């Protein structure tokens, strides 16, 4: 007997205000850290680079960029059905991720103001950028008669604690993968304007430069703390965060492949390109990177994505919760096994690569 599937619906906490997406292992997270440890960090080893990045932040190249123009002033009812729902999900996930960055950077800027003024100002200016991004995305959601209550989100969202070095690894990769995601969508739609279903994509070229500068800041910050990059533990953690970021994006995007199809992209091809570029970028600072060209690498991610799709289908079924849990278990185990396989795949020594380039 085939289980019937529930019709997808958008839940609201009040009219026009979307209920936040349920937290899962694949949803954007809010972070906190050890602010005292961060305040004691000595950045003198790489202060010149951090000062140069701070000057770029002060220039505020995008201060006049995020302004809605006449193209937004129309009805978007023609984007309907599943495409509409997937597009709203895209806007919500992006807004939540940007707002998460704003909250973390703002708090770091406040806490470090007296003890590390250069780093504190960098965080404050990055929070400015992230606030613009989140606000622009939330306003875009209002074109679809929905918005997020960011104040409610601040209070209701669970916060994940990461030690500073883990914050550096995770946010560096988040910013750099964001750059590659935005620029690839922008370039694709520049070549195929007939697929640009909504004007927000026109803003991605400048937008991705904010992401790139933020990533450069975290790169410089990690270089100022060589203990985060130069031992065996750093090698293991860098592999872990690379794999976590890549696998999360891959499973999410293949689950929402119809959204990418709506703008003329194949989700799998797009993700492979983004992963390869981000991996190469990470080689500039991380001691190791993943061997994404290994013939088993994307096969394992494909197997994980198939298991995730089956797990999502079980979740949408009318089965009782205990039976849903039992039906999901083999798919969870399959995803876990594929991740373990990839983690223990021999990585590439990025330090040797940099030595050869020199």
Features:
358 residues, mainly alpha, two-stranded antiparallel sheet, two-stranded parallel ribbon, disordered N terminus
Description:
- A hairpin with a 2-residue loop joins strand 1 and strand 2 (17-18).
- The radius of gyration is 21 Å and the shape is globular.
- Helix 4 (117-142) runs antiparallel to helix 7 (204-223), helix 6 (164-191) runs parallel beside helix 8 (232-255) and helix 8 packs across helix 11 (297-316).
- By secondary structure, it is mainly alpha-helical.
- The chain has 13 helices and 6 strands.
Summarize the structure.
With 358 residues, this protein is mainly alpha-helical.
The low-pLDDT segments are 1-7
Q: Looking across the biggest beta sheet, what order are the strands in?
A: 1-2
Order of helices and strands: EEEHHHHHEHHHHHEHHEH
Total count of strands: 6
Class by alpha and beta content: mainly alpha
The quaternary state of the protein chains shown equals single chain
* Tally of contiguous helical segments: 13
Major β-sheet annotation = 2 strands, antiparallel
What shape does the CA trace take? globular
Average pLDDT reading: 91
